[in-house]
Amino acid sequence: MTNPAADAQLLGAGAVRQLADQLGVRPAKRWGQNFVVDANTVRRIVRLAGVGPDDVALEIGPGLGSLTLGLLETGARVVAVEIDATLADALTGTVADRYPAATRQLTVVTGDALRLVDLPLDPDTFVANLPYNVAVPVLLHLLAEFPTLDRGLVMVQWEVAERLAAPPGSRTYGVPSVKAAWYADVTQQGRVSRTVFWPVPNVDSGLVGFRRHPPPQTTASRVDVFACIDAAFAQRRKSLRSALARWAGSVDAADAALRAAGVDPSVRGERLDISVFAAIAEHRPAASR
Length: 289
Fold this sequence. Notes:
Low-confidence stretches: 1-5
Largest sheet: 7 strands, mixed
Strand content: 15-25%
CATH superfamily of the largest domain: Vaccinia Virus protein VP39
Order of helices and strands: HEHEHEHEEHEHHEEEHHHHH
CATH class of the largest domain: Alpha Beta
Helix content: 25-40%
CATH architecture of the largest domain: 3-Layer(aba) Sandwich
Mean pLDDT: 93
Number of strands: 9
Shape: elongated
CATH topology of the largest domain: Rossmann fold
Structural class: alpha/beta
Number of helices: 12
Number of domains: 2
Distance between the termini: 50 Å
Strand order of the largest sheet: 4-3-2-5-6-9-7
């Protein structure tokens, strides 16, 4: 569904480069900046995300505003968080120039997504082209800090998309898969060609969708469960009995915790889902916490 007002003038390759030149901006590797220069890709992301006029959409790393304009076009309110002060300062002006009807829908926050603990509006959806180098930490941090986020769609490096959506027992199943599953059902939503970015990255990208669900029923805290996951995957080739020895305090304590949770101590972590890790964490000896 689109805003009844005129459509936004989305940014193409020429407009992106022109804006960058005007601002004296060059994509920064340290912040993983690759700007989307294809309007069709923007509208595809917004459509798959299902953003509508009743939503408050959180966007991390809006850059020059390619995706921001597409989100505003739906009629949603958008909270855009940008670490680059130059880009953050310019974003409101870009929206005023290219979609003046939507200027009141936009709130810009200058800051680091990994340090966010509050926002001027409570977001219900998260849609972003995430920097490859911090995609997983940002997603997990936001899911932890903002319980009102009940769904979203993010663009990440293809290998990261595979890991986030991987089921237990698959080749790419690991720490990101299990921790994301604490918060939400995560699914792959397709590939994105590297040619839609400037500069062109040396990897392909993928879209990952999520919908929040309740965490596993457990007496263990999320911190304890995540510590168990970290320990289990730190030594992937070892059995859980061995991999969890330091976490539990000893091999015997790990063995006891696994058996109490109904888990074969000889199994490896990549075979277990989040509910099983939660059960194991419940039986960690108090002395080792």
